[in-house]
Automatic annotation (TrEMBL):
Keywords: ATP-binding, Cell inner membrane, Cell membrane, Cytoplasm, Membrane, Nucleotide-binding, Protein transport, Translocase, Translocation, Transport. GO terms for molecular function: ATP binding. It comes from Zoogloea ramigera. Residues 19-605 form the SecA family profile domain. This is Uncharacterized protein.
């Protein structure tokens, strides 16, 4: 007798097809439909002594028996408990890690196809491994998605003994891997990979499939074409997503575009002409710049001058819409996009800096000619022209998984949107130990230079007490400006930004040493575990200074979460200036600033509670605007897909 539909395990094969993926929108998971996590946790704990008493041979035999029962009964609550108890024991035997109640509960939440909010430092890596192990024991190909290639390789290697104890193999995919290496890694029961690598491999599979939707034609194509016709993935059966809010919310609208090189010299000449024309326009006379949206808008005088100068060029320049769009983009490249803020120049190439993660994103390019215009600005060799083969966004990709779960330390602010778009419920996991983080009053300064002077003095003060300090800045340029100020006053430190991403592991490993100072961008905000050295806890723990104003409160919380982990002491404070990015756009701040005097160090006497309220209100309003934009884009995408009903999911 086959198990009920909701308990069946999606597997590549005759029932689910060679490439399983969800075609219909996921069903909404409401809080009242949650599994009984407390009783399941108690059952896992009760089964522990029986598993611990087994010899190695008996342990392996019992694991195989559990796999057989899952194949017969599906992923019922009883079978999940059995498999999870085996995974907990495997972690103890192979890694010496005793899973905490919170880690086991988080794994149960993810196996229930929901999202677990766990405080930073509560052991999300092991929770993900426990959930992935249960899914793999059920026979599903499991994708564990984490933040970057460094964590992908680290976690896969670190957890390999645990998976091997269960008779499972694990692989990983990073950007440098060949197609053959990727196919081999995805063929294993568990594969660690970043979301971008996974999505692009999915789009490549879509190109191989073309418009062939039936399972038999796909198999025939593989027999005909050999490896060239074989997909890289084995479908979208189960995913465990680390830092879920980053992918599902912050990067939800980012278009992931699969392209190929083409010869397109006329287009390149067109944008070169746009660059030259933009150079003859004056700010505030012919155009205005919107720094927040990174766009330039022509004034009537600018439109008239452009029409006059472009008239002799003919061709596309006869279209007012095309010429104003192209020149507006060239103006944005000249004046809005800033080196070491929005991009790096490395090895003669433009590398975009991801605003959310603070990391360089090699291979990512701006579309519609913008990337070529920035290359012109920096004197870089022009990249080959490309054409789009396929594209998708994260908010259209992830609902295609049959089983989707994840975790993060900052989910509750977005729980409504996560349920509306992905059908995912958020479950908060209590911390193992009471929180001990101290939040100190915030400060605001009149100018950036005054801020850096004050931060340098503050850092020196904490270093004198033997405490490590992590300073978060908003960009590569800001981190290097503060670094120069610290050098000037003789404070030894390390810089962690997109320019030094290759040194990340070494910098993070030492960031918890006594008196160690680390100046970082948002690279230090996610997936970074700063372990305290001996004696540091007694001195007060890690101190975090937030010298940035992020668009989302969730990103602030990620940086704050680097300190006071797992019951350790720590403290955090926000120091900003009126010149800090985004601060000038805070409603009412400009009017209130005039009411408060500044001292000789440039610090405004604004009460910390007033400052905090203004910043929180601004973030709340920005989050609402971004939420509405994501919803509008999703509705547009869905309408487009309905219009192309003959196409299917091949993008």
């Amino acid at each position: 007798m086959s198990p009920p539909l909701e308990l069946r395990v999606p597997l590549p094969g005759p029932v689910w097809g060679a490439y399983p993926e969800r075609r219909e929108p996921p069903r909404v998971r409401w809080p009242w439909g949650r599994a009984p996590y407390r009783s399941q946790l108690q059952a896992v704990r009760a089964a522990g002594p029986g598993w611990r008493a087994l010899s190695e041979v008996a342990f392996v035999a019992r694991v195989r028996a559990v796999q057989a029962r899952i194949g017969r009964d599906g992923l019922s609550a009883e079978r999940i408990v059995e498999a999870l108890a085996a995974a907990v024991e495997a972690a103890r035997r192979s890694l010496g890690l005793a899973a905490y109640d919170g880690q086991i509960k988080a794994a149960l939440v993810m196996l229930d196809c929901r999202l677990a909010e766990m405080a930073t430092g509560e052991g999300k890596t092991l929770s993900a491994a426990l959930a992935a192990a249960v899914g793999a024991l059920a026979g599903m190909p499991v994708h564990v998605l984490t933040a970057n290639d460094y964590l992908v390789e680290r976690d896969a290697g670190k957890l390999e003994p645990m998976y091997a104890c269960l008779g499972l193999r694990v692989g990983f995919v990073i950007g440098l891997h060949t197609e053959a290496a990727r196919r081999a890694a995805y063929a294993l029961p568990i594969c660690y990979v970043t979301a971008r690598e996974l999505v692009f491999d999915y789009l490549r599979d879509g190109q191989r499939r073309g418009f062939v939707q039936g399972d038999l034609p796909r198999r025939a194509a593989v027999l005909r074409d050999g490896d060239a016709g074989r997909p890289l993935l084995r479908g979208l059966c189960m995913a465990v997503v680390d830092e879920a809010d980053s992918l599902l919310i912050d990067e939800a609208m980012m278009p992931l575009i699969l392209s190929r090189q083409v010869k397109n010299s006329p287009a390149r000449a067109f944008f070169w002409q746009a660059w030259q024309l933009a150079g003859g326009l004056e700010a505030d006379v012919h155009f205005t710049l919107d720094a927040a949206s990174l766009k330039a808008r022509l004034s009537p005088a600018g439109s008239a001058l452009l029409a006059e100068r472009a008239g002799a060029l003919g061709g596309r320049w006869r279209s007012s819409r095309l010429r104003e769009e192209a020149v507006g983009m060239a103006l944005a490249a000249r004046h809005a996009y800033r080196r070491d803020v929005h991009y790096l120049v490395r090895d003669g190439k433009i590398e975009i800096i991801d605003e959310v993660t603070g990391r360089a994103a090699p291979g990512r390019v701006w579309s519609r000619g913008l990337h070529g215009l920035v290359e012109l600005k920096e004197g870089c060799r022009a990249s080959p022209a490309t054409e789009t083969l396929a594209q998708i966004t994260f908010q259209r990709f992830f609902p295609r998984y049959h089983r989707l779960g994840g975790m993060s330390g900052t989910l509750r602010e977005a729980r409504g949107e996560l349920r509306e778009i992905y059908g995912l419920d958020v479950v908060c996991i209590p911390s193992r130990l009471p929180p001990s983080r101290k939040t100190l009053p915030g400060r605001i300064y009149t100018a950036r230079n005054a801020l850096w002077d004050a931060v340098a003095r503050r850092v020196a003060e904490f270093v004198g007490h033997g405490r490590p300090v992590l300073v978060g800045t908003s960009s590569v340029a800001e981190s290097e400006a503060l670094s120069a100020r610290l050098d000037a006053v003789g404070v030894a430190h390390r810089v962690l930004n997109a320019r030094f991403d290759a040194d990340e592991a070494a910098i993070v490993a030492l960031a918890g040493e006594p008196g160690r100072v680390t100046v970082a961008t948002n690279m230090a905000g996610r997936g970074t575990d700063i372990a305290l050295a001996a004696g540091v806890a007694g001195a007060g723990g890690l101190h975090v200074m937030c010298c940035q104003f992020n668009a989302s409160r969730r990103i602030d919380r990620q940086l704050e979460g680097r300190c006071a982990r797992q019951g350790d002491p720590g403290s955090v404070e926000r120091w900003i200036s009126l010149e800090t990015p985004r601060v000038a756009d805070v409603p009412l701040l400009g009017a209130l600033v005039r009411r408060y005097a500044a001292d000789e160090a440039g610090r405004l006497a604004m009460p910390p509670r007033v400052l905090s309220t203004l910043l929180t209100l601004s973030q709340w309003r920005q989050a609402g605007r971004e939420r509405r934009a994501r919803r509008a884009l999703l509705e547009s995408d869905r309408e487009w897909e309905r219009g192309l009903s003959f196409g299917g999911p091949g993008e």
